[in-house]
């Protein structure tokens, strides 16, 4: 189990301070982000043609501690029921019965809470925004099942670091996150599909002590490899064979949604974000930079894999929309069966042939972006 209170306490204690902003400027940033979020909703709806909520809730603007608390709440919604199932499957054999087992479990939960908190502290200084899929249930049943969150100090920090137009950058970020809102509110089955794959992944953990020892050994080797500058990461190291198969499906859908968001934020064009080309160029350089320590941490946590997802997914979406147009691209959201496989993301023609159907050799390409 995980001591979530320890995770929050550890994360907030390890946080780096955000940019120095006065109260008046902070209020101005919050108000503008809410306004730009609403503006982005219309651009995303018009550009993608996706059905979205009729009256979506305004974006929730948080600071870094607020982002940590929100993510811990989401983790609890997803993980606590799963950990109970896993504990029932394990029984008491691994920890032993009685007070001794309880003490070991309590100590372990605090250690795990500190580890989770340390990871969240690192991430809380990097994340610009997200669409939170998993929220604590609303007793009245009136609250939405998801929430769009923007991390104001991180947005301000990055726009200052890049030296780009503040309003353009904020709208650019909102376009990406509002695309995620459109995906998960406009595609009725998508949220449940992602949750199901995550559940299968977590429940597929090896329970055999020997297999767990092998996973720990692999994780140690991944750490050493990442420090040496290799490609090792903890995400790959701790997986069982069954988990790797599930992760392939989960990675494919997340590559699609992340790449779709990256494509839309650029493709709406300079009519909406005048300095979009400058922003993309400088932002991409920032993604690929950083100190040796920062690059090592990114590898260990799988963040570099996420950056690869952005690039591969965006390339897939751009190719398909160029070849067949946005209407045919949107067939991708019909069902889990129309989602691309990893192989199809790497070669979009395979998905086009399977889902859209072969096109005549002389069919013109559609230039929508």
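Q: What amino acid sequence fits the structure above?
A:
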């Amino acid at each position: 189990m995980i001591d979530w209170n320890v995770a929050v306490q550890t994360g907030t204690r390890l946080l780096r301070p955000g940019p120095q902003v006065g109260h008046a400027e902070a209020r101005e940033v919050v108000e503008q982000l809410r306004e730009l979020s609403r503006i982005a909703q219309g651009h995303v709806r018009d550009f993608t043609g996706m059905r979205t909520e009729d009256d979506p809730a305004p974006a929730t603007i948080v600071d870094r501690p607020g982002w940590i608390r929100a993510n811990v709440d989401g983790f609890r919604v997803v993980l606590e029921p799963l950990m109970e199932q896993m504990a029932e499957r394990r029984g008491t054999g691994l920890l032993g019965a009685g007070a001794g087992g309880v003490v070991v479990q309590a100590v372990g939960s605090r250690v795990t809470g500190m580890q989770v908190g340390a990871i969240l502290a690192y991430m809380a200084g990097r994340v610009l925004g997200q669409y939170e899929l998993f929220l604590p249930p609303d007793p009245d049943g009136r609250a939405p099942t998801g929430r769009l969150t923007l991390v104001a100090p991180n947005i301000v920090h990055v726009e200052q670091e890049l030296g780009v137009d503040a309003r353009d950058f904020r709208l650019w970020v909102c376009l990406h996150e509002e695309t995620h809102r459109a995906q998960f509110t406009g595609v009725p089955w998508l949220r449940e599909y992602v949750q199901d794959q995550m559940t299968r992944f977590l429940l597929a953990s090896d329970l055999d002590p020997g297999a767990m020892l092998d996973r720990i050994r692999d994780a140690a080797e991944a750490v050493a490899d990442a420090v040496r500058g290799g490609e090792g990461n903890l995400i790959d190291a701790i997986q069982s064979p069954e988990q790797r198969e599930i992760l392939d499906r989960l990675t494919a859908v997340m590559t699609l949604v992340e790449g779709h968001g990256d494509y839309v934020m650029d493709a709406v064009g300079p009519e909406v974000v005048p300095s979009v080309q400058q922003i993309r160029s400088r932002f991409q350089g920032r993604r690929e930079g950083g100190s040796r320590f920062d690059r090592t941490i990114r590898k260990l946590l799988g963040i570099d894999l996420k950056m690869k997802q952005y690039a591969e997914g965006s390339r897939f979406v751009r190719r398909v929309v160029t070849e067949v147009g946005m209407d045919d691209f949107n067939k991708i959201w019909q069902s889990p069966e129309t989602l691309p496989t990893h192989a199809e993301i790497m070669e979009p023609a395979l998905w086009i042939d399977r889902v859209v159907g072969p096109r005549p050799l002389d069919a013109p390409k559609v230039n929508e972006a």
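Q: And what stands out in the fold?
A: The chain has a mean pLDDT of 80.
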